[in-house]
Design goal:
Elements lengths: L2 H11 L1 E11 L2 E12 L17
Antiparallel strand pairs: 1-2
């Protein structure tokens, strides 16, 4: 899929980005970092899942 098609589809449907990074020395894992993100557009017609001003 070309990058242009991907960038066109993201606002309409959204995309999930997920990845893991493991730092190891001599095959012994020392640090693990996990990334999980959801990128999507916001629609004014869909109500927020939290009450009042937001989660913060």
């Amino acid at each position: 899929m070309p990058l242009v098609d991907l960038l066109d589809r993201v606002p309409a449907t959204g995309v999930v980005v997920s990845g893991d990074l493991v730092l190891a020395v001599a095959d012994v894992p020392l640090v693990r970092i996990s990334l999980h993100a959801l990128l999507s557009s916001v629609n004014e017609r869909v109500p927020a899942p939290w009450p009042d001003s937001g989660p913060l």
